[in-house]
Task: structure prediction
Amino acid sequence: MKKLIASIAILAIVGSVTSPLFAATQPEPTIYVVQKGDTLWGLSERFFSDPYFWPNLWSRNQTIGNPHFIYPGQKLRILPDRIESVTNQQPPPPSAQSTGKTVTPPLPESISEKTFSVTGSEGFLTEDELTGVGRIVATNHDWVMVGAGDTVYTDIGANRDGRTGERFSIFSSQEVITHPIRQVTVGRKIIPLGTLELTAVTPTGSRAVITGSFREISSGALLLPWRNGRQEIPLKGSVTDLSGIILDSLPGIKAIGTGEVVYLDLGKSQGVQVGNLLYVVRKVRPDRAHRDTVTLPQELLGAVVIVEVRRDTATALVVKSVETIYPGDQVVTVLPQ
Result:
């Protein structure tokens, strides 16, 4: 248990004050009455000095359910490694108890949960060949690289239902990603470059203006139907225990830290959903003399939040790292004991 508490402390966002709740002299659990505005995120920060620990608390306690539906007055039992619900339903009002009438309890109040912002520049891995709806075929003045406000030309014309004012997202189809452990092809990395809008259309082509850019854009870039990638991602508990591997990072770097985008070998097929938080862990191998007889605790490296899900892969944002993360490191929803 001490090892678990130590691991929790490593991930603390606000770790300068340690709650006396889990002091060695406090063997009994604490009963906490939920107040208006409480969330599992906030309770995790308050009692465990680590808001990122709440999905682990949630996964250990199926009676709580969705954290948006803990309600004022609900009693929770706070233990060193989990939060339990003491009462699952609000008691009926005194008038209902005295009269014997059935009274429907009020619906739980809506509670704001922690969210993370994404811009649409995070990219994804595609398991299937991505052909798009068109391409940039030329740039103004034959510039090698263009950005926001520059003019480009596309092969989307009236014959392909191109219309003046129509918007598209611009992508770069990059290298094929190989699984770092299984050594099999996982998919191709697709990187968002920006957006454009058609300004003039011929039967077979069009002129367009770059309306926004994340990275430098060049001729040959892939066009897909426009989508607004800016959104707030609320945290969401996983419906199943998940375990996967970090495949690669957005920039392709091997040393990964907080704020980086990574790609995982988990997707819809495995039950992953946008908003799931997973911990990054790494197995520690004993020396050769003890490799077959000793199992060591895993190292807790950080946490990621899922921001996009495809069939068998997902895009995630590294929201916390206490050590350098590398492709091949494991991601899990429940911390190992």
